[in-house]
Amino acid sequence: LAALGERHPDLVVEVAHPKIIQESGAQILRCANLLVGSPSALADQATEHQLLEASHRWNHAVFVARGALWGTEDITRLDAAGGLQSLRVTMATHPDGFRLEGPLAAVPSTGRRTVLYEGPIRGLCPFAPRNSNTMAAAALAAPSLGFDGVVGVLVADLSLTDMHVVDVELSGPPGPTGRRFAVHTHRENPAEPGAVTGSATVTTFWRSLLGCCQLPS
User: Where is the Aspartate dehydrogenase domain (predicted)?
Assistant: First the structure.
């Protein structure tokens, strides 16, 4: 980090841990644009405010990788149009694929399929910083709901030894007939046993990186 000013990078890509963003994100923005690969860091409101302030002060952009979130642009468009009322993201994988901290690390798996957490994403990110990035991306894609309004569900499933499964469920407000617009996507991402990241996520992350080079600051 001390050499950033001398090297003059266009873009710094974080793919390590949310603590990097929380501790050094604002410092990075003094010298370069920043691609956040661990958006769970932004569940911390102080970190989010620091990045926004640094972005405006130094005229550098903050980008967020979509990771394993399918339909990011569609969620954003629907939210901007006022058509999003609820958003729920469920991630399920084998217990060996989780890197949990705090009270979540002590939750026992009581059967083949155990719900470890269900609630606002802001409450999940601090205890599952490596396993909540897809959910954090959803909260950022839908700012009207945000980290407090988007529901995250983390599931340990003993049958999912070689994949991560992400379900995204959203709905809009009731229309004139009382019916709601609704979408449910189901994504199965092959993964090595015990891996935190599925194999297809590398491709989507790379596309996010390329997108940073095409978008205006």
Answer: 112-202
CATH of the structural domain 1-64, one choice from 3.40.190.10, 1.10.10.10, 3.30.230.10, 3.40.50.720: 3.40.50.720
Q: What are phi and psi of 105, to 5 degrees?
A: -65, -20
The whole-model pTM stands at 0.89
Q: Which fold has domain 72-196?
A: Dihydrodipicolinate Reductase; domain 2 (3.30.360)
Q: Please, what is the angle between helix 72-80 and helix 133-141, to 10°?
A: 30
Tokens of 58: 């130094």
Whether 100 and 128 have beta carbons less than 8 Å apart is answered as yes
Query: Edge to edge, what strands does the sheet with 11-14 contain?
Result: 11-14, 33-36, 62-64
The H or E element containing residue 167 is strand 163-174
List pLDDT tens digits, range 151-182: 999 999 999 999 999 999 999 999 899 999 99
Q: In whole angstroms, what is the distance from residue 116 CA to residue 124 CA?
A: 10
Per-domain residue ranges of the chain: 1-64, 72-196
